[in-house]
Amino acid sequence: MSSSPPSKLALAAMFLAVAIYGGQFVSVRWGLQSGLSAYDMAALRFIFAGAVMLPFFVRAGIGNCAGLGWGKGIALVLTGGVPLTVLSNVGLIFAPAAHASAIQPGMVAVTATVLAYLGMRVRLPFWAAVGFAIVLSGLAAIAVAGSTGREGGMTILGDALFVVCGLGWGTFTWLCGRWQVPSVTGAAVVSVLSAVAFLPFYFLLLDPGLAQVPWPIIAFHGINQGILNVAIGLLMWTYGARTLGIALAARFPPMIPVLGTLIGIPALGEVPSPLAALGVAGIVVGLLVATLAGTGRR
Q1: Distance between CA 246 and CA 294 in Å, rounded?
Q2: Which of these, 223, 181, 200, 249, lies nearest to 18 by C-alpha position?
Q3: What number of other Cβ atoms are within 10 A of residue 162's Cβ?
């Protein structure tokens, strides 16, 4: 029985990772509509992710925060852990999943790339700058669409929270690259430290609502948020990018907003307004232009 060549397996891995990341905002919004709070969703994420990643954290060394040092570990939690997870969940109370799946990846790409070029003191390539200008134009279109109130009176607040989260996760991405943090190590540090910091506070002070929700919903969101997104999605993305190379792997992130929007239509009944759809399309095109421009350089 012949096995698939590595390139086909890597392509399958990247498509699976994109599907996982494209659907995460839809699943969170559905959970919020099912009776879970933003804090409940964050707790489920870090209960499951913390349990899965704890062995990796312990093996890498508790005393020195998995080899990173506690200063770097805390910085990664603040820019990529529970504070931004809660903010993103709150944003999904007010704004559609399509907005989150477009705004956050767009801001992550812009923030991480600009910080990287500033850190190297190298001018941003012309076509990358053009791509990011298109991304920002798409963000502006979504913001204007949100301000009209057609998709909810507080949509603009949710969009603003997504921008903040994108800035934070973009900084986290840049820090991981600057400090050469292995993917599994970064996920272990963020998951375990977020669980340790947040879960006692959640259970003691935030009126947990997990007991009021049927256990199949709890299991679904815990597995989806804590295992699929943190562990499986990360491993699939890392394997795919390493096998295919950056030039090909860079073409996959623009698919995340597309999938997030498409999944949200049947799953949540959220059809974007024409202006919001134009904004999502602008972000996708801008990301594609910027990533293709970036992969043309070392």
Answers
A1: 10
A2: 249
A3: 29
| C-alpha 60 chain-centroid distance | 24
**Which residues have a Cβ under 8 Å from the Cβ of 17 and sit 6 or more positions away?**
233, 236, 237, 240, 252
Of 106-115, 166-175, 234-243, which range is least confident? 234-243
User: To the nearest 10°, the Cα dihedral for 284, 290, 295, 296?
Assistant: 130
- For residue 64, which phi and psi values (nearest 5 degrees)? -110, 25
Whose tokens are 């504070």? That residue is: 83
- Rounded to whole angstroms, the Cα distance separating 193 from 165 reads 19
Tell me the three-class secondary structure of 258-293, residue by residue.
HHHHHHHHHHHCCCCCHHHHHHHHHHHHHHHHHHHH
CA angle, 231 as apex, 226 and 234 as ends, to 5°? Answer: 125
Q: Which two tokens stand for residue 150?
A: 């057609």
**Could you state, in order of their start, the residue ranges of all structural domains in the chain?**
6-294
Model pTM? 0.87
What pLDDT, in 10s, does the model give residues 233-249? 878 887 887 787 765 66
CA neighbours within 13 Å on the CB side: how many for 267?
A: 21
pLDDT single digits (tens) 61-99: 999 999 999 999 999 999 999 999 999 999 999 999 989
Residue positions counted in the chain = 298
CA–CA distance, 47 with 195 (Å, rounded to integer): 6
Residue 279: closest CA among 155, 132, 144, 96: 144
Return d(Cα 60, Cα 204) in angstroms, integer.
30
Q: Are 68 and 181 in contact (CB under 8 A)?
A: yes
